[in-house]
TrEMBL record, chain A:
It comes from Prosthecodimorpha hirschii. GO terms for biological process: tetrahydrofolate metabolic process. Residues 519-600 form the SoxA A3 domain. This is Sarcosine oxidase subunit alpha. SUPFAM superfamilies: Aminomethyltransferase beta-barrel domain (SSF101790), FAD/NAD(P)-binding domain (SSF51905), Folate-binding domain (SSF103025). Residues 617-887 form the GCVT N-terminal domain. Belongs to the GcvT family. Residues 172-428 form the FAD/NAD(P)-binding domain. Pfam families: Fer2_4, GCV_T, GCV_T_C, Pyr_redox_2, SO_alpha_A3.
TrEMBL record, chain B:
It is found in: Cytoplasm. This is Sarcosine oxidase subunit beta. Residues 34-78 form the Rhodanese domain. The lineage of its organism: Bacteria, Pseudomonadati, Pseudomonadota, Alphaproteobacteria, Hyphomicrobiales. Belongs to the SoxB family.
Amino acid sequence: MSQTFRRPEGGRIKRNKPVAFRFDGRALTGYEGDTLASALLANGVHLVGRSFKYHRPRGILTAGAEEPNALVTVSRDAARSTPNLRATQVEIYEGMTAESQNRWPSLAFDASAVNDLLSPIFVSGFYYKTFMWPAKFWTSVYEPRIRAAAGLGKAPELPDPDRYQSRFAHCDVLVIGAGPAGLAAALAAMESGARVILCDEQAEMGGSLLSDPDVTIEGQSGRQWSTDVIMALALSDRVTCLTRTTAFGYFADNFVALAERITDHMATPPASSPRERLWQVRAKQVVIATGALERPLVFPENDRPGILFADAARTYLNRYGVMAGRKTVVATACDSAYLAALDLHRAGVEVPAILDIRREGGALTAAARAAGIRVETGATVTGTRGRLRVASVEFGHVQADGSVRHDAVLPCDSLLMSGGWTPTLHMFSQSRGKLRYEEVTGRYLPGRSAEHERSAGACNGTMALGAVLDEGYAAGENAARAAGLATRGTKTFAVAGATTPDGQVLGALPHDRNPGRVKAFVDFQHDVTAKDIKLAVREGFRSIEHVKRYTTTGMATDQGKTSNMNALAIAAGALDKPIPAVGLTTFRMPYTPTTFGIFANTSRGDLFDPVRRTSTHDWAAAAGAEFENVGMWKRAWYFPRQGESMHAAVDRECRTVRAAVGIFDASTLGKIEVVGPDAAEFMHRIYVNPFLKLEVGRCRYGIMCRDDGFVYDDGVVGRIAADRFHVTTTTGGAPRVLSHMEDYLQTEWTDLKVWLTSTTEQWAVIAVQGPKAREAIAPLIEGIDLSKAAMPHMSVRMGTILGVPCRLFRMSFTGELGFEINVPAAYGKAIWEAVHARVVALGGCPYGTEAMHVLRAEKGYIIVGQDTDGTVTPDEAGVGWAVGKSKPDFVGKRGLARADLLKPGRTQLVGLATVDPKVVLEEGAQITPDADPAPRTHAIGHVTSAYHSAVLGRSIALAMVERGRSRLGETLHVPMPGGAIAVTVVDPVFYDKEGGRLDP
Amino acid sequence: MRFSFASLLRNAFSAHTGWPEQWRSPEPKAAYDVIIVGAGGHGLATAYYLAAEHGITNVAVVERGWLGGGNTGRNTTIIRSNYLWEESEALYDHALDLWQDLSQVLNYNVMYSPRGVMMLAHTVHDVQVSKRHVHANRLAGIQNEWLSPEEAKAFCPPLNISRDIRYPVMGAALQRKGGVARHDAVAWGYARAASALGVDIIQNCEVTAIRRGPDGAVTGIETTKGPIGAKKIGVVAAGHTSVVMGMAGLRMPLESYPLQALVSEPLKPVFPCVVMSNTIHAYISQSDKGDLVIGAGTDQYVSYSQTGGLHITTHTLDAICELFPMFRRVRMLRNWGGIVDVTPDRSPILAKTPVKGLFVNCGWGTGGFKATPGSGHVFAHTIARDEPHPKNAPFTLERFRDGRLIDEAAAAAVAH
Ligand SMILES: Cc1cc2nc3c(=O)[nH]c(=O)nc-3n(C[C@H](O)[C@H](O)[C@H](O)COP(=O)(O)OP(=O)(O)OC[C@H]3O[C@@H](n4cnc5c(N)ncnc54)[C@H](O)[C@@H]3O)c2cc1C
């Protein structure tokens, strides 16, 4: 039995290309061009899922993105499994495996279906009222069970091997949706010479025209017209046509995000192709042509498999050649369902009756009767029967008093319904446009725009095809004109054979059953019924946002596309208020669920965050360095020799620097060139230090505070010329220091003539430190007198090294004689290699950041961000001497004068010596006066830096301790899980207190 | 009517037609003893504790939208108390204590779920900072423990601890008592309990002015529903606090930023705990319904617009997919934003103000949901007694003038 519900001819599927696929293990066939839904229906399969809460059997309700029921997991292989896909959007390919979800042990027999029997208890919000006793059962019993029962599909278990890509695009006109309105708009824009992007979420453009066999446009069939237009657009090199592409997010300034699905429909995707592509489009003008979605009727048991939207059934018939059943009852409030009935009837499907809720029927009532179809007007469905598929429909007539008199039972195998059409306002609403409510038709429509966009066609409430085309064309023309192009004016399309789908009903339909007992579904996926919404209102939830959250209506994966308007009408009815007074919930990004991967895109592994490497990176890697991440930089951490531990390597590097000389890559330090006639004044204000009198050729260790008076950054600054400073910052602080400086320049001190340039990446910085540092570099340097007298500590000179221009700093972060050679980054590696050779010849070695940390800690030099944490003043950090006492003002001066910063008792930087010299403290450990602190004891400080010092043969530590400088010699304690460690408070300078080594 | 399984069952027999309103929706009276501006979780909790603990029931909570519709109903509900400074530890741990039996106290299941909050460290600096927290917390009697990458993975199996990723996980700090709760239930539970004690909750009523008497003390408010008198006013307006306080002539040390969050489609349980990474900006847990609930960062610019930029969401999903690469095929269902009120030291202000009778509770920024019960509790005390509770005494407005900051941002990047 294969495809018994497929008509022998018709539809747009490729009948010469059969496709084999599996659903829940069952082998089935369809044709190329089928969706999973159409192929399942062709095989007579209606039962495809279970609902979220009651696990009721569910079928395929729609033919598009709004599908709430037919959710499946499609897997290519173990890593490529995607849950929660809508069968109505999945295109089948040879060998596809699809599984239903949220059922056990099988779809036909689902144990959790008992929930349906318990539904009198499991009403909206029941979980807020129970599961509270006994209290600890929530975590141990109730919540785990609820969690296990909830959820839909399963997340893949393996990392996704597929790739995602991203493109930025600009255009004059972006047209969202390629139905008749969108095609006409794109056509008009193209004809004016605009650069156009046209996107549509479906595999084929054409929208509603694809399912309509009757209409003619400009004398051609509607399908032919759309084919021709699409061809013309595709041939234009100014138009980009994107199918399978959903506009899912609308952001400020006409920035629209599109998700293009590239390979999901392919049996064997080419390895070179990404799975999806993110388009980030900045459009001068946007035309929204997203159409309208049909609504269900809310009658008792409206959720059985075999019950479909009327227009969906028409689409299956005309586009896929598939009949939803052989005996199809139609219930409607809208003319469009008649079109489905007539098409089905023509195709030989038995249509026992059309039940039209409207007392007078509609425009096509007579035509249906003339075709021999029984039409009952003023009639409504009062219930349905059938376990896994609808088997019969009960109906009755609505009486003058609004009650319903039961009439008859109609046996059937399918039931179509239409409650009318809801304009698709998501994109408009996301653009922050204001919606307006149209009283007569009971619809929300686009109102005032907030962006350069306009809506056309059904999403704008225009339903008659001729008007849709005219409006679409006008919108495209208008958009092109607004984008600055000359256009040809508007156009009127000659249309025949189209029926305007008039008529609608909102909210629950009347019936003759016990209202407390029947289930008339509003939100199918979340099992929200009309009575749930009334319950919410009864319990005081009056705004639609409250109703939504309490009942969860509209919060399922379809985001209320089929349910919101009915829910709103029912809530408004229960509150006895007009619909606009109850409000509409906000439309949020994304329009339909969008893969995380398309956002994360190429940001994986090394591309997650750009890796910044210095010019010596490869050299260091070849030398066996281990690296650490510091901000975005990779820094050489230490250079272990064969078989050497980190500890041993760091000890060796430190000893070598102190005994001979070491070479260190300091290129990652931030560098800012501060230039201009007011440069010195600027430096004087932005740093706590005085800068006006710094001589050209001299350097100063600068401390920078924010206005709160706390240390923000530090670094050595050299004065290159009267109007030029070479500023260095911490590695991590470079960007924020630059913004901080710019902030002041641009907002506070607009009178200063100063320009800032980030030069971090322009200079490679090679630090040479140790007693033999001068000896190491002297033979390589030209044009600079390196003698002690000519180039004192903290000076900067311009010269060349091996012929390369350099800025040579004499400075030290180790306490030894030291130089930092700044050369253009492109020469960094060559110069490094030359200097390295010299260093090695003198018994030196390269050292990494860890040794650098130890060496500076031995000298009590702070690292901003490690020894300070944004709550420490310069004085507290031990660098109070840097503050220019006589300066009239500087950033942080008033902050430092605040009452609490002047109080005694604040923390100060000190050294700690463990009583046992072998014990190295843990950074971050707390400090107490007592060895055995009682719980909730106040900590008087914490350890900021702690290392083993090879040179000193003991551990050292820096700490911030309350009144630390007055405690020198005191014994304090560092409580650890295994007991406290006794420490003595000492001066933070552990090595060469007199500083003689700096300037030998 | 008390909520219980028994009452649920009883009502099932009457088709649930017997449930009363969970809270009354009265028209405002001419005057109240206390008016709370803002019916978020903090405002409603304040009103509840005023009535329940201080016997002050002539209270109105005035809300411009619908109760719980601000940040309370938009947040990712991470609850923890392992903050750095003693003042914060005490305040947040007070809240954590109250969370333990909040469902029973309010007779409303707020679904507090202590499933453990794990904060990842990716750099040497992160490790130093995390360990500082762990040590400080241990001393203060606050649960927090350090985990190796392997232990972190054992606690959260989907976590990628490969050394090859851009910022490998170097360890994590875990607070087992931390977790999540159901945000709406917190607002609704407090609203129902407060309303039952006589508090009037007045929704769709925007405060447009604060009235003051000749001595400068507050006398009431003006609203879109007319003037309402009050002896005391507590402003609990989160992202809009500066606007409301401006009505009393006070300039607040606050900046308001959009903060975004998103959820995935519902999945069968895959994610057992809460994971936070301040360094690469990812915050994730799985709701009882099955969605992955993901928090993003704030925009870089101040704004009152609740839509943040796409690049912020993107950046967060970069991080999520890096840490949990199997989630790349999972799909985003819904993305939204809220306006958070950020202080210079990233700690809240819960205090009296220079204006007599005017109190303020704000500055919770990206992380105030967790504090809801504690904040309401001590703020009610502050309003009722006209002096702070010891736990909120340090959280003054004057600290920004005097420099007695409680800087939680200092050591960590962002605090959720
Ligand atoms: C995306 C996001 C994620 C977050 N994640 C977390 C998290 O994981 N953990 C955590 O602890 N915290 C988190 N937070 C922060 C947390 O949500 C807030 O700190 C907390 O909920 C604030 O509660 P509230 O009651 O003070 O504010 P709100 O709930 O915002 O309430 C303030 C109320 O004041 C009302 N109001 C404003 N102006 C007026 C006026 N003029 N008149 C009348 N009423 C007015 C508003 O409408 C609003 O309802 C997050 C926040 C956001 C936005």
